[in-house]
Structure formats: C-alpha cells, structure tokens
Design goal:
169 residues, mainly alpha, 11 helices
C-alpha cells in the first residue's frame, strides 16, 4: 500500500516526493525497515529523474544506506548513473570486499537487462584478475550474446585457459 502512495506522489509531484523521502531517511523516529523499503524502491525506478539522481548523490552515496542502494539496483538507468558518476569503479576497486561483491552481484543480476551498457563498461576496464573474473561471470549469466560479449570473450579467452578461475564462480 505505501509503495502505491509513493508511486503516485512520484508521478504527481516529484519535488514533494523527493522531500518526503529525504524526511523519512533523516528522521530518527522512523524505523530502519521503513527507510530500507524507501531506498530499495529507488533501485527499481525505471527512468530516474535528475532530482532522484541528485538525491542519491547527495543523500545516499557516502551514507550507511549506500550499500543498500547498490544492492537494490535492478534498472539500466541506475547502472548508467553509477558508471557515469565513476561510482561503479570506486566500489569495484575499493578495499571493501563487501562493496566489490555488491558490484559483482549487480553486474551478474543485470547481465541480461543491461548487457550493452555493462559490456561497454567491462571493455574499458584494464586487464586484471578481478576484471577477468568479472567478465567471465558476466558472460556466464548472459543469455544472448552480442558483439560486445564476443569481444569480451576474446579478451579473456587466453587468460581463462591459463588460470585457475572458472566461469560462473
């Protein structure tokens, strides 16, 4: 029921919607699971508006809700947002295994819905064991290969044959 109200408010008055979300996250009297639901709903927004992207940059990234948001993303536009803002690289190459795993899961989870965007992103990564594992996992989950997927496979083919990592792990 609350999701319907949020969706309606988002469509009807985006500014009020963003202000309400901000208030809900700031208030100590709001329980965490309510805040969690609100943040999770952002990851499912099909076409986030600039106000929503700015809200995420200003109020979510760099807070205790950051990881939750990354783990909730299921839409291409949010993946593009992370790529453009340099956040995907920041989290993937951070010292935190938790953030690296969140990015790996994000890419695997969205392999089929965001394959061109993710494929282009992966092509730009410098070759390393981490990027090779990321590419091999992406290809493992990919159902329909395009030109980027074939190029990615060609890029890691020799390294996969020489190494001890396996696709899909």
């Amino acid at each position: 029921m609350p999701k319907n109200h949020f969706g309606y408010l988002r469509d009807y008055d985006l500014t009020s919607y963003v202000k309400l979300v901000d208030q809900l996250i700031k208030l100590d009297s709001i329980r965490f699971h309510i805040k969690e639901l609100v943040i999770l709903s952002f990851g499912y927004v099909e076409s986030p508006h600039e106000k929503e992207k700015n809200f995420v940059k200003e109020k979510i990234i760099g807070t205790e809700y950051q990881l939750l948001f990354i783990e909730s993303i299921n839409k291409v536009e949010w993946i593009n947002f992370l790529i453009v803002e340099g956040l995907l690289n920041k989290f993937l190459f951070s010292r935190s295994e938790q953030y690296r795993n969140a990015v790996i899961n994000l890419i695997n989870r969205n392999a089929n819905t965001a394959s061109p965007e993710v494929g282009k992103y992966l092509m730009k990564l410098s070759k390393s064991r981490l990027s090779n594992n990321l590419v091999s996992n992406f290809l493992y989950f990919l159902q329909h290969w395009d030109d980027n997927a074939i190029l990615l496979f060609g890029r890691i083919r020799k390294d996969v044959a020489k190494s001890d990592f396996h696709m899909g792990t």
